[in-house]
């Protein structure tokens, strides 16, 4: 490999490292299709009978644990006599309400099927205004619909409760569905819209922060998967109707299941493997370049075929002319 080839390879490896460390997250934020695909198998349409869910009788929900636990909104299942979950693969299974909190507008369901793919929760506390998000549900009964928007305000307080204000347009049937960030992590639960005095939608929507949802799930002894850096709240067992007091504690974060840990760590492991391969290639290119620099230069003196003569040695005359025989007559 020539010096130019080594230099080109060096620059290429360096560029790939920079792309991996800085540019990939930017690309991920520009397209939510891969994020939606990551959670699509965990989302279901919730068919509700005998409820206060409105004329559609349809809501949304998503699996939060492999044992069949799922999350939706309280107002979707309030007063329901029968719940049916239409899964992403087309199967329909029955569901029942395990716990519900009207104040938080959250409900925990148990589906009649286990080993379903579960979502991974991200941090709603890290959301910034302007970040892209997607709400997934069954607006007006249209199953598996995705609505893209942006975070308008990550911490909007309404009547003492915290919500995420988003620009994604929600409709009846979106309630209970997940709101995901560009990494496919659930950062909220779609649950409300703002209407004008005439009762018409304004295009302003709200979602319950994932931090609130995680606290609700942990209180019900459900341990969902969370992304790296997100801590599960400490488990509490409040009495009926009593407020939940969250006190700081020096105890370590509860251990997660091996499967949940694998879900959290695989992106980091893949990234470390790629960086290791590129770093090894970069080191190899540097070594090759130094080795080439130590090679002796090509002979440049007239008629030289070997190593250069010592300094001060005169060069032998070089005759580039052919011999010509001349016969005198």
Order of helices and strands: HHEEEHEEEEEEEEEEHEH
Strands, count: 14
Q: Which strand-content bin applies to the residues? A: 25-35%
The total of helices stands at 5
The best one-word shape is: elongated
Instruction: Please compute the radius of gyration using only Cα atoms.
Output: 33 Å
Low-confidence stretches: 21-29, 237-256
Fraction of residues in helix: 25-40%
Q: TL;DR?
A:
The chain is of the alpha+beta class and 329 residues long.
Question: How would you describe this protein?
Answer:
By secondary structure, the chain is α+β, with helices and mostly antiparallel strands. Among the domains are: 1-30 and 255-292, no CATH class; 45-111, Beta Barrel (Thrombin, subunit H), CATH 2.40.10. It is built from 5 helices and 14 strands. The protein has a 6-stranded antiparallel β-barrel. A hairpin with a 5-residue loop joins β4 and β5 (92-101). α1 runs antiparallel to α5 (258-293). The radius of gyration is 33 Å and the shape is elongated. The two termini are 61 Å apart.
């Amino acid at each position: 490999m020539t010096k130019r080839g080594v230099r080109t390879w060096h620059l290429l490896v360096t560029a790939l490292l920079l792309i991996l460390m800085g540019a990939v997250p930017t690309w991920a934020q520009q397209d939510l299709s891969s994020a939606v695909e990551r959670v699509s198998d965990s989302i279901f349409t919730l068919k509700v009978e005998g409820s206060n869910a409105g004329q559609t009788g349809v809501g949304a929900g998503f699996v939060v644990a492999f044992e069949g636990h799922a999350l939706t909104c309280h107002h979707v299942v309030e007063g329901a006599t029968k719940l049916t979950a239409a899964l992403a693969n087309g199967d329909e299974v029955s569901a029942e309400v395990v716990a519900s909190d009207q104040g938080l507008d959250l409900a925990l369901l148990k589906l009649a099927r286990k080993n379903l793919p579960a979502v991974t929760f991200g941090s709603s506390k890290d959301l910034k205004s302007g970040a892209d998000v997607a709400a997934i549900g069954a607006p007006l009964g249209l199953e598996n619909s995705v609505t893209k928007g942006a975070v308008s305000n990550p911490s909007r307080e309404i009547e003492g409760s915290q919500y995420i204000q988003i620009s994604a347009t929600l409709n009846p049937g979106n309630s209970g569905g997940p709101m995901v960030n560009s990494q496919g992590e659930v950062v909220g639960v779609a649950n409300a819209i703002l209407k004008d005095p005439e009762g018409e939608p304004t295009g302003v929507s709200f979602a319950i922060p994932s931090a609130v949802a995680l606290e609700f799930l942990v209180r019900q002894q459900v341990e969902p998967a969370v992304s790296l850096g997100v801590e599960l709240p400490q488990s509490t067992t409040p009495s009926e109707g009593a407020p939940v007091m969250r006190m700081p504690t020096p105890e370590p974060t509860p251990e997660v299941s091996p499967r949940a840990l694998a879900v959290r760590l695989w992106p980091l492991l893949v990234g470390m493997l790629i960086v290791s391969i590129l770093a090894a290639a970069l080191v190899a290119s540097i070594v090759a370049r130094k080795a080439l620099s130590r090679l002796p230069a090509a002979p440049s003196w007239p008629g030289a075929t070997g190593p250069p003569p010592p300094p001060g040695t005169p060069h032998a005359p070089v005759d580039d002319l052919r011999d010509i025989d001349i016969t005198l007559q």
